Amino acid sequence: IEAEYSHRHNEVCDVNADLDQHAAIVSAVAELPMAYHISPYAGIGVGYRFIKLDEKHHEFGVYQLRAGVNLALTEKVKLFADYRFMDGFRSNECANQDISGGLKVSF
């Protein structure tokens, strides 16, 4: 089980506006350890998103699907690549896709 908070700020050049997004998600993630310290994973989550475009704002429930892979460098350090898709429970609520990578350190 994971809990996550995200914030994104973008300038929308075509309409000269600022876009702010805040989201809080709780996800269940399953990891499948394989050979050579590689562990693919997948997860699903639910949460809440707040979007503000200049003075207008929208708030709604969301779901998130995710998949990725971890590569263990040591027992406590992993490289990762992650894909996430987030959308509202109703159609046309600003779907969002992210691809990220980095380093995870466990304590």
Q: Would you give an account of this structure?
A:
By secondary structure, the protein is mainly β. It has strands at residues 2-12, 17-31, 38-53, 56-72, 77-88, 96-105. The model has no long low-confidence stretch (mean pLDDT 91). It is 0% helix and 76% strand.
Question: Layout of SSEs?
Answer:
Layout: E1 2-12, E2 17-31, E3 38-53, E4 56-72, E5 77-88, E6 96-105
Antiparallel strand pairs: 1-2, 2-3, 3-4, 4-5, 5-6
- Can you list the strand order of the major beta sheet? 1-2-3-4-5-6
Q: Percent of residues in helical segments?
A: under 10%
Average pLDDT, to the nearest integer?
Answer: 91
Shape: elongated
Secondary structure tally: strands? 6
Cα Rg? 16 Å
Taking pLDDT < 50 over at least 5 consecutive residues as the criterion, the unreliable ranges are: none
* Largest sheet, strands/sense/barrel: 6 strands, antiparallel
Order of helices and strands: EEEEEE
> How far apart are the termini?
17 Å
Derived from helix and strand composition plus strand pairing, the structural class reads mainly beta
